[in-house]
Design a protein that fits this description.
Blueprint lengths: L2 H8 L2 H6 L5 H13 L1 H21 L7 H11 L13 H64 L4 E6 L8 E7 L4 E8 L7 E8 L4 E7 L7 E3 L7 E8 L11 E6 L5
Antiparallel strand pairs: 1-2, 2-3, 3-6, 4-5, 4-7, 7-8
Helix pairs in contact: 3-4
């Protein structure tokens, strides 16, 4: 649902329009939205049905014999002589006017309270929806963390610590490789700062080539997956131009570690 439509529905103008409480400008706005947006039209039709159902549920149909009884009663009664109309006292008119004003004020108060409750219900509904969405996201994150922990605690998972050479003394990264499940994880612990035109790139070294495993970023400290390379004999980290290289070169090497192969 578009934000403009959602904001309009939260104003409660549809409810006012149904009971005839909108101003001319509000009426024009409501009718324009109903004509333009299918979601608004659908909400208006739903409110109409609810209003009709409420009216029918509160109405009481008289018994079928009521009209016949009234007519028979009128036929059996003597004609009543009408007395001259008495003048209504002034104080009675004043009391009636005050009563009408009190009733009108009460009706307006109840209308405003109903509007406030409707807005509060809409706010609560939105908060519940956001809460459910947050819970679902947190559950997905938790599932991901649990999966990573299971991989790390797997007895088949091998841990490799890559440390920097003279060109990057403070570099440290930990690789977790499971040759049975064919999965690889990398935890970037520390990376010395580079110029804006350079980056750190990780590689899996084969007999005759280097396969890129992606660019390392100190700002992305979370445990992350990297491609598993079946026949890799070692892992290395190089300094490359910004954006990384397609082909690696040992001339740019700053860290390397041999992978243990099971016999």
């Amino acid at each position: 649902m578009e934000k403009e439509v959602r904001d309009f529905l939260e104003l409660g103008l549809l409810n006012k329009y149904l009971i005839g409480a909108t101003t001319d400008s509000e009426t024009n706005k409501v009718e324009a939205y109903i004509a333009k947006y299918p979601d608004v039209k659908e909400e208006y039709e739903i409110l109409q049905v609810r209003l009709e159902l409420a009216a029918k549920s509160n109405s009481i149909n008289p018994p079928s014999y009521t009209l016949k009884s009234i007519l028979e009663t009128i036929d059996n009664q003597d004609v009543v002589k009408l007395l001259p109309k008495r003048k209504i006292p002034f104080w009675y008119s004043v009391a009636a006017s005050i009563t009408a004003l009190i009733f009108a004020g009460s009706s307006y108060m109840f209308y405003n309270q109903n509007k406030i409750l409707l807005n509060e219900n809409n706010v609560i509904a939105e908060e519940v929806f956001d809460l459910r969405s947050d819970i679902e996201k947190n559950n997905n994150k938790l599932d991901k963390v649990m999966l990573e922990l299971m991989k790390l605690n797997n007895p088949e998972t091998q841990k490799y610590v890559l440390r920097g050479n003279e060109r990057a003394k403070d570099l440290k990264a930990v690789a977790y490789i499971n040759p049975i499940e064919k999965s690889s994880l990398i935890d970037v612990v520390s990376l010395p700062e580079l110029s804006e035109e350079q980056c750190y790139q990780m590689w899996a070294n084969l007999q005759d080539k280097m396969v890129s495993l992606g660019i390392l970023d100190i700002n992305d400290r979370k445990l992350q997956s990297v491609p598993y390379i079946e026949d890799a004999i070692s892992l290395s980290i190089t300094i490359e131009p910004k954006g990384g290289n397609i082909k690696g070169s040992l001339e740019n090497l700053v860290a390397q570690i041999l992978l243990i192969k099971d016999n």
